[in-house]
Design brief:
Growth Hormone, Chain: A, 2 strands, 18 helices, mainly alpha, two-stranded antiparallel ribbon, transport
Amino acid sequence: MTSFADLAPLERAQEQKAWYWYDWANSAYFTTVLSVMFAPYMIEVAGKAAGCPDNLDDAASCGNTVGLLGLDLAAGSLPFYLTSFATILSAFVLPVVGAFVDRSSHKKRHMAFFAWAGAAFASLLFFMKDDDWQIGAVAVVFSSVLAGCSLVSYSAILVDISTEDERDRVSSRGWAFGYLGGGVLLAINLGMFLGHDAIGLSSGFAVRLSLLSAAVWWAGFTIIPFLRLRDRDPVDPVAVTGSVLDRSFGQLWRTLKELRGYPMTLTFLAAYLFFNDGIQTVIYAASTYGSKTLGFGDSVLIGTILLIQFVAFGGALLFGRIAARVGSYKPILYGVFVWIVIVVLAFFLPEGNVPLFMLIAVAIGLVLGGTQALSRSFFSLLIPRGREGEYFALYNACERGTSWLGTFVFAVMFQLTDSYRPALLALIAFFAVGAFFLLRLDPERGIREAGNTVPEPLRTATGTQG
């Protein structure tokens, strides 16, 4: 009798390595563009159009307005209105994309198409200069929405290239690779910006080159997964018909109704919406808190941004190793409690204490990469097979649709107290609610209800057999 070696694990490993490269590719856009450079530069450009002073800080607080779709918007608030509009637009688009992805045999092509289209729009940010902010407004809205569309396909591919037992490891390595890639390009761009005089560039041109580099990086490295991943036939596709409105909000509504049959999936989604909103708000508020409350200069804040980025690389790998022993549920739960401790420590952090601020940054980096990576892999286990695009579209659409809540609470608390310390402390509520839902979650039940196999580490950790 002739026996043949099972080559499936080797083939999956090759595809997993290719899949990691899209985290590396798109993280440059999210880090260099959306997290660091776009908002302050757009405020400067829009400020010139509104007649604000040339100084960036004054432009940010300038009350002069620019006109957009018949609305008069403060120049200092324009980038935040634009990103909010992009999240609302995503709520229409992503459910359609998710349903389409589930019915397609070409997930990698859709991922690459959305990535290259998004990178093309992102490259238009290079032409935002002087007082021409309009091209930047169009570029950031469409690139942001297209990035979200590409991630729906990308997340759905995770299920195709990994078994349930491999899911945490693969997701963690992808996130780690993404943090490393985003951090490398950000370090290069911040070095170019800080040393622009030495290399004969204006500060504005250095920023524009940085924005362009993120688009080129995103498009270029997407070629690797596009060439090395393979297409697969859809699993039990569900036909989607009707108008665009019905296929977007109608599909989203049908998915939400269906979730009643998967209570553990719904419970985790509720938990994720709260604790992830807390995470995003802490990251968003960190530089403001560091500069306005703790009195740190730009050099400390830039160093902190890079420190978090590279520590998050190790944090994602560390959480992946922990999940390999106990499953992903407990690390996510304990990670949320660590976030509460981080917020409390930051609240009591004395002004001007750089070493303690850096220690908290290290803690943020460690838990940031881990909680995000394992949330993605754990959610994939709670999705019925063949519905990955639809459910990950819901995951992303709901996340984007509620991402304003944490920043709103932070802003209201600051307005009421005139201090960023209680504003930061108020974010504990998001982590507490997230932990509340996580504690009500039975992970094994949720995985089985979705028709998936409970990973061996989770069965071992809970003493469950089979």
